[in-house]
Amino acid sequence: MMLDDFGLDGRVAVITGPAKGMGAEVTFTIARAGADVVLAGRDLEPIHDVARDVRMFGRQAEVVECDVTSAASVESLRQAALERFDGRVDILINVAGGTGPIETTSWDTTPEEFDEIVKLNMKGCFLTMRAFLPTMIERRYGKIVNVGGTFGLRGRALRMAYSASKWGLRGITRSTALEVGEYGINVNCVCPGMVDGPRFRRVCDENARRLGITPEEARRRHAEEYALKRVSTASDVANAILFFASDASRNITGQDLAVDGGWVI
Once rounded to an integer, what is the mean pLDDT over residues 226-232? Predict the structure, then answer.
C-alpha cells in the first residue's frame, strides 16, 4: 500500500455537519488530502468560515443550506452538488448528528426526544445516502462514511435514545454495504468515543453537577475508562474518516471502526 492511496486528488466529497464539533477538522482533513468539498448544514455562518479556510489551501468549497432530516432539502443538496461538480460526487461523509437527552433514564425520555434524535441520527444519514447512491452506482464508485458512536457498539445507561439511534445507524450502514458492494461502493461507520470539544465539555459539566465533582474530575474519570487513558481528539476521528474515504480501504465495507482510546474492547 502506497502513501498516495490515502490521497483524494480529483475527488468530490459531500460533508454534512462540516463546521461544528469535529466537523471542521473532518472537512480540513478531507480537503487537505486533495478533495473538493460540498459543505451542507443548517447554520451557514460557521460553514462559510470553514469554506473560506478550505479555499485558502487551494480546494473548491461549495456551501449548501440543508436540513438532513428533510427529503426535499436533501434533494436540493443533491442537485446543487451535482450541478456544481458536473454530475460527480465520489464521497459522502455524514457527520451531522445530535446527542439527544443526557443523563436521562429510558422512562424519563419523552417520545418527542426519542423521535428527534432517531430522526437526526438515522433518518438524516438514510436520506443523504438515498440521494447520492444512484450517482455513485452509475459511476460504479463511491465512499460513504457515517459517523456513529461507541454507544452504538455498547449500551450506555442514561443515554438510551442516543444509543438506539447509533445502533440503528450501524444497521443502515451494513445493509446498504451489502446492497451496493457490486457497484464498487464502500459503506463504513466510524464510531468515536468521547471527543474533546464543546459537546464533551457539556457532558462533563452535566456529570460534574450530578455527581458533585469538578468538571476536571469528570473529564479524568472519563479518560480512566479507556485503555489509552486519553480522550480522543477531532483529529483522531478525522484521520479514521480519511482512511475510509480513500482507496486505502478499498476492500473494507460494512465495518464499524471505534476511535475511543480502547473503551469498547
Answer: 95
Domain that holds residue 7: 3-194+234-253
Q: Which of 141, 162, 183, 226 is catalytic?
A: 162
Look up 226 and say whether it is catalytic: no
Q: Are residues 164 and 140 in the same domain?
A: yes
Residues 126 and 224 in one domain: no
- Looking at the fold, whether 89 and 201 belong to one and the same domain comes out as no
56-93 pLDDT, tens digit each:
989 999 999 999 999 999 999 999 999 999 999 999 99
SS3 259: strand
What nine digits make up the cell of 205? 459539566
Tell me 121's DSSP state.
I
Q: Indicate if 219 and 238 belong to the same structural domain.
A: no
Kindly provide the b/e burial profile for residues 179-199, where b requires at least 16 CB atoms within 10 angstroms of the residue's own CB: ebeeeebbbbbbbbbbbbbeb
Q: Is residue 91 part of a domain?
A: yes
What is the per-residue pLDDT for 253?
Answer: 99
161 and 209: one domain? Answer: no
Q: What separation in angstroms does the CA of 156 have from each of 91, 232, 244, 262?
A: 31, 18, 26, 16
Given a contact cutoff of 8 angstroms between Cβ atoms, the answer to whether 79 and 85 are in contact is no
- Residue 17 falls inside a structural domain: yes
| pTM given for the model | 0.95
159-171 pLDDT per residue, tens? 999 999 999 999 9
